[in-house]
Amino acid sequence: MKIYGAKNMDVKDVKVDVKNQKLTMKLHFPKIYMTSDYDMNGKVLVLPIKGNGKCTGNFTNVDAIVFFKGKPYTKNNKQFIKVEDAPKVTIKLGNSKMHFDNLFNGNQELGRSTNKFLNDNWELVSAEVIPLVQDTVSTIIQSLFKPVLDLFSFDQLLPEH
């Protein structure tokens, strides 16, 4: 899964618990675009769905809460924070439009009606997709923050703690 649009992120709130090395951020993404391969043979809601191929998604007004728990360590006589576990991410979508190519072995009519059904019921369908997106966002955020935490000491990041 690939996610695009994170560069337009707004940081709405940051809370730091210095004593317990915890960080909570509230983020807002106006638009996120996702591409993925899929292989489906089951049910979404009550609709049986079968197919494999490419999937795209457009998500708007995405709110995310990101929670980190760090562990202090010393390097060059300075205290640093290491995030060992991937951050916990909770996502709420404002709106969602998805498209699955090649549903029902390329049957255009069934594919079109299934994609319409999925988009008409996006709030219910997104409940099944969000855990995958949360895992991907968690991995992305961890990869963005790890180099920063490795490079800057605790005092450099939070000089007035």
UniProtKB/TrEMBL annotation:
Annotated Pfam families: JHBP (PF06585)
Alphabetically ordered keywords of this record: Biological rhythms, Signal
GO cellular component terms, semicolon-separated: extracellular space
Matching Gene3D superfamilies: Haemolymph juvenile hormone binding protein
Coiled coil, from the record: none
Presence of the UniProt keyword Signal in the record: yes
Keyword Signal included in the entry's annotation: yes
GO terms of biological process kind: circadian rhythm
Family classification: Belongs to the TO family.
Name under which the protein is recorded: Protein takeout
Species whose genome carries this gene: Cacopsylla melanoneura
